[in-house]
Design a protein that fits this description.
This protein is an alpha/beta fold and 288 residues long. 25% of the residues lie in helices and 31% in strands. The chain has a six-stranded mixed sheet with strand order 10-9-11-12-13-14, with helices on both faces. A five-stranded mixed sheet has the order 5-6-3-4-7, covered by helices on one side.
């Protein structure tokens, strides 16, 4: 079978706000090839503005953008809670403006010194990195209070998280190309799940959802992420006061160190009937 010729002039047609788009691929199985339709996860830039001034650009999957922005501002310590927000709205302009759907402007009720320090520069964050925009090591290691309070989680509840996460990943099931973050209560009940090309974006969307709903702090909840647990995931969880973070894959050394320093329980390699606890295992309740 001859393969279709390359058409470099063609561009994908991506509807505004779509999280996935169809695309024709050539699939090989041994020596046999066939052209068939596949689904691609959408990745587009989102510019975040404060009072019309550019603060950051992040690569994300469209959808739940106000939640992403709210979670991002909380984790960056631009805001401390919902009361600091006045308006989060997409840029309004002509329908043919390419920025439509990819720019959000935020108006704040309270503007503190930390906000002005961040507004002197613009930040670009890729979908693979949550700290790429930081300009110094000091900016990465933002001081926050360790979490206080106790919550216990049973092993049975923990073992049920991964199947619940997988079952709720609707766009991943179509594309195979998205990360997920999910928030559960201490009994293992799924409260909210968000998907994105960036794992840190997915966490921002989950935290932002709860922030906009007025449900922070999240000290009696479990955050679970697909993939690995990284430093920036732990930092975002701490900003929301989450005590328990679980990941399907491994944590990094910085993630484990961060969990130990801040009193957080960190779980890795969470699979059916097995897991590893890397920090503060006292919150795990054995059933026997």
């Amino acid at each position: 079978m001859s393969l279709p010729a390359a058409r470099p002039e063609l561009e994908l047609e991506i509807p505004k706000g779509a999280s996935a788009v169809p695309h024709t691929v050539v699939s090989f199985r041994d020596e046999t090839s066939v052209a068939q339709e596949d689904q691609l996860a959408v990745e587009e830039p989102l510019e975040i503005r404060l009072g019309g001034k550019s603060l950051a650009v992040t690569m994300r999957t469209p959808g739940n953008d106000p939640e992403l922005v709210a979670g991002f501002l909380l984790s960056e310590r631009v805001i401390e809670g919902k009361a600091d927000l006045d308006v989060i709205a997409h840029y309004a302009g002509p329908d043919d403006d390419p920025r439509i759907g990819n720019v959000i402007n935020v108006l704040l009720d309270h503007a503190g010194p930390a906000i002005h320090q961040r507004l002197h520069r613009s930040v670009f964050t890729s979908s693979a990195c949550g700290v790429c925009g930081k300009t110094s090591l000091e900016a990465i290691d933002m001081e926050q209070r360790p979490v206080a309070g106790e919550v216990t989680v049973s092993l049975d509840a923990l073992y049920a998280l991964e199947p619940a996460l997988a079952a709720a990943q609707t766009t991943f099931a179509r594309t195979g190309g998205l990360h997920a973050a999910a928030l559960f209560d201490a009994t293992g009940r799924l409260l909210v799940l968000r998907e994105d090309v960036g794992r840190h974006n997915a966490v921002d969307k989950v935290v932002g959802h709860m922030l906009l709903a007025g449900r922070l702090p999240l000290s009696h909840h479990i955050l679970m992420v697909s993939g690995r647990a990284s430093y920036e995931i732990m930092q975002k969880a701490l900003a929301a006061r989450i005590l328990v973070v679980a990941a399907i894959s491994a944590p990094s050394s910085l993630a484990a160190q961060f969990a130990l320093k801040n009193g957080m329980t960190l779980i890795g390699f969470l699979r059916p009937r097995r897991l590893n606890v890397y920090a503060n295992a006292h919150r795990i309740k054995q059933t026997v």
